[in-house]
Amino acid sequence: MRNDMEVKGRLKWYLRWPIILNIIVGIMTLGVVLIDHKAGGLMGVFFLVHLIFSVVVSFYSKPAIMEELINFGLQYGQIQKKLLHELEIPYGVLDSSGKMMWENDALTKLVGNVTVHRNIQSIFPSVSLKKIQEMEEKCCIEVIHEERIYRAEFCRMHVEDFSEHNDMVVFDHPENVLIAMFMFDETDIRRYIRENQEQKLVAGIIFIDNFEEAMSSTEEVRRSLLAALIERKITKYMQSYDAIITKVEKDRYTFVINHKHMSAIQSSRFSILDEVREINIGNEMSVTLCIGVGMNAISYGQSYTWAQNAIDLALGRGGDQAVVKAGDKISYYGGKTKQVEKGTRVKARVKAHALKQIIMGKDQVVIMGHKIGDVDSFGSAIGVYRAAKTLNKPAHIVINEVTTSVRPIINNFKNNPDYEPDMFLKSSEAASIINMETALIVVDVNRPSYTEGPELLNRTKTVVILDHHRQSSESIESPVLSYIEPYASSACEMVAEILQYIADGVKLRPIEADAMFAGLMIDTNNFSSKTGVRTFEAAAFLKKSGADITRVHLAFRDSMEIYRARAEAVRHASMDNGMAYAVCPAEGLESPTIVGAQVANELLNITGIRASFVFTRVKDTIYVSARSTEGTDGLNVQLVMERIGGGGHGTIAGAQIQNMSENQAMALVKRTILNMQREGAI
User: Fold this and answer.
1) Side-chain half-sphere of 95: how many Cα atoms within 13 Å?
2) What is the 3-state secondary structure (H, E, C) of 150-213?
3) What are the distances in angstroms from CA 88 to CA 107, 110, 145, 190?
4) Please, what's the b/e burial string for 35-71 (b: 16 or more CB within 10 A of its CB; e: otherwise)?
5) Gyration radius of the chain over CA positions
6) What are the CA-CA distances from residue 300 to residues 259, 303, 618 (Å)?
7) The predicted structure's pLDDT at residue 439
8) 205 and 252 in contact (C-beta within 8 Å)?
C-alpha cells in the first residue's frame, strides 16, 4: 500500500534529486569518454556503481520514508487537535447559519456541554447573527456572560470545494463557509483601564465673572461677608468631591479633581452655579461663576491649558456657565440667566486702541459679515469702514448677496460720488486682493462657516472679530484681536462705542449713522428687547452723528408681499406649552429669512407665548428663527438652538438645518426642548 502512495510538492522534488544527479553524472561520463577513452571507462564504472546504489536505496527506503511521513502526519494532527481542545481561549466553529458545529474544552467549561447544534444566539443572546453573516472577513461583538465581559471575534473561513471531495459532511449552503469564534475575557483589563482613568487628575478653573459688580451692589459692611460666603460655597462644593482647590486671586480659583467624580458633577449640571447664584445677603446683583475644565488630556499641563480655553469660552458666551473641554468635544452647562451689562466702557476703550494699532500697521482693511447679511451686519461693517478711512487706510466691505432688508441702506452708498466704486466686493473679488498685509475684520459673526467668505480667513494672519453672539465650539482660529460681548444688543452698539475711542475726530456721515442706527434698531426690535444703558448711549452717539430716526423707519417699511407672508405665518402658527411654532412661506420673497425673524418677533406679542420658533425654507436649508421674552418666564432659546447646531443669545437665536422638511425641523426642535426640560438644562 505504501509503495502505491505518491508524494507531491517540495518533498517530491527533494526525493527526485538522486535521479537528477545521476543524469548529470551520466552526461559528465560521456564527456570524459570523448576526451579520453581510458578515463571515460573508469568514470563509467563509477557511474554504474552510483546508479545501482541509488536505485537500490531508493527502492528499499521509499516505504520507510512513507511510513515516517504517515506517522508524522498523524502525530501532527493529534497535536493540533489536542492544542485546540486544550487551548485556554474559548474557541468554537459555526456554520453559516450560526449553528455551533464544534467547541473546545474552554468553551465547554464556559457555557456547558450542550452547545453543539445550538444556534449561537441561544447561547449568547447579545450576539447579532445578522452582523456575523454580513461581515467581510472579521467582526467583533461584546458578549456579557455570567457578569464577565468577553470580546467575541468571528472570522470567516472559506472551505473551497470541500463538499465535492468528501462523503461524510454535506453543507446546506453552497458558499461552503465556516465561522471560527474566539472569546477573549476582557473583564479585568477593562476594570484596570477604568480604574486608571478614574484616578487621573483633571484640572479646572473657577472664575467669579461679576465679582466687582456684585460687590458694588452690596453695602460696604457686608462685602467681606459676601466674599466669605462665596468662598465657603465654592470650597465646600469642591471638597465634597475630594478636590484640591486653591484661591489664586480674589475672584479666581484653580482645582484638581479625580476623573471619577466628573460624571457626578456633570450629571448635576454643575449645581454650584445655582448655589452661588442663590447667595443673597442684600446684594442687588446675583453672583455668577464661570467654570472651565480640561478632561482626557495626555498631560496635566495640557489639561490646565484646556481648562483655560474652556474658561475663555465660558466668558465669551456671557458667563454663568461651565464649559468642559475634552479634546475636540466641548460640553456646556448652565448659561440660563440673562447676561448682565457691564457698566464700564474700559474694555471698549482698550479694544479700540488695539484695533487702531492693527489697522495702522496694515496696508488695507477688508470687512466681512455673515451670510445673508442683515442690517446689523451691514451697519457695523460701515462703522469699521469709517474707522479705517479716518486712519487713511483703503477699505472694502465683502457682501455677496444684498437682501431686501439691506437694500434700502446700501442703495445710499452705491453710485455715490463720496464713496469708491470698489467699496463693496464679492468674496471672490476680495480673495484676489487679500494678502498678508491685509487686516480682515469680521463683524456680527464668530463662526467661520457662517461668514460671507470662509476661504478669506486663511489668506491673512491678521483677523479681528467684533461680535455680540455667544461663542460656540466652532470658532475662528487664532484671531489677533477678539472682542466678543454677548451682553451687547448688537454689533452696531459695539462699533459705535469703538468709534468714540479709536481716533480723535471720527465723524460719521449721516447715511453711515443711519445704517448703524438701523442695525441697532432692528436687533433690539425697536429698542424693546435686550437693551441697556450703553445701548441708548450708542443710539445717542449715532443721533448726534446725524442719524435720522424718521428716515430710518421709512426705509424699512414692508411691501405688500412681505406683509401678507408675515400675516399668513402668524395665522397658521400653533402653540404648545407656551411655545409658538410657525412656518414662514418663502415663495415670492426675496429675503424670506428676514421675514421669518420678523414673524418670530411678532409672535412674542401674543399673550401666553414665552418663546417662538419660525421655520423658513431657502433652497435645501431650513432657517430657524428663535425668540423669547426677557425675564424669569422667558426660555433661553440660545441653548436650544445650540443643541441643533446653531447659536445666538438667550432671547434671540437661530440655526440652520439641512436635509429636512419644515415639519421635520419643527418636530426636532420640540423634541430638543422636551429633552432639555427633562435634563434640567433649560
Assistant:
1) 15
2) EEEEEEEEECCCCCCCCCCCCCCCCCCEEEEEEEEECHHHHHHHHHHHHCCEEEEEEEECCHHH
3) 9, 11, 17, 20
4) eeeeebeebeeebeebbeebeeeeeeeeeeebeeeee
5) 40
6) 12, 5, 47
7) 94
8) yes
Q: Encode pLDDT of 392-416 as tens digits.
A: 999 999 999 888 788 889 989 988 9
Can you give the pLDDT at residue 396?
95
Residue 506 has a CB neighbour count (10 Å cut-off) of 17
Sheet holding 438-443, edge to edge: 424-425, 395-398, 364-368, 438-443, 463-467, 481-484
Q: Is 282 left (phi over 0), alpha (psi -120 to 50) or beta?
A: left
Q: Tell me how far apart the alpha carbons of residues 242 and 293 are, in angstroms, rounded to a whole number.
A: 16
Instruction: Provide the grid cell at 428.
Output: 471672490
Q: Residues 107, 115: contact at Cβ < 8 Å?
A: yes
Helix (H, G, I), strand (E, B) or coil at 425: strand
Buried b (16+ CB within 10 A) or exposed e, 105-120: ebbbebbeeebeeeeb
By percentage, how much of the chain surpasses pLDDT 70? 89
* Range list of β-strands (E), 62-99: 91-95
DSSP result, 569-584 = HHHT-EEETTEEEEEE
DSSP state for residue 559 in the 8-state scheme: P
Average pLDDT over residues 464-493: 85
Helices in 291-419 by DSSP H: which ranges?
A: 300-316, 346-360, 375-390, 407-410
- Residue 438's pLDDT is 93
* AA identity, residue 359: I
Sign of CA dihedral 83, 85, 86, 87: positive
Question: How many H helices and E strands in the chain?
Answer: 24, 23
Residue whose C-alpha cell reads 475644565 in the numeric block: 293
CA angle, 588 then 592 then 594, to 5°: 140
What gap in Å lies between CA 143 and CA 146, rounded to an integer? 10
One-letter amino acid at 284 equals E
Mean pLDDT score, 65-89: 70
CB 541 within 8 A of CB 500: yes
Identify the CA nearest to 178 among candidates 285, 262, 95. Answer: 95
Torsion (CA) 445, 449, 455, 461 in degrees, nearest 10: 50
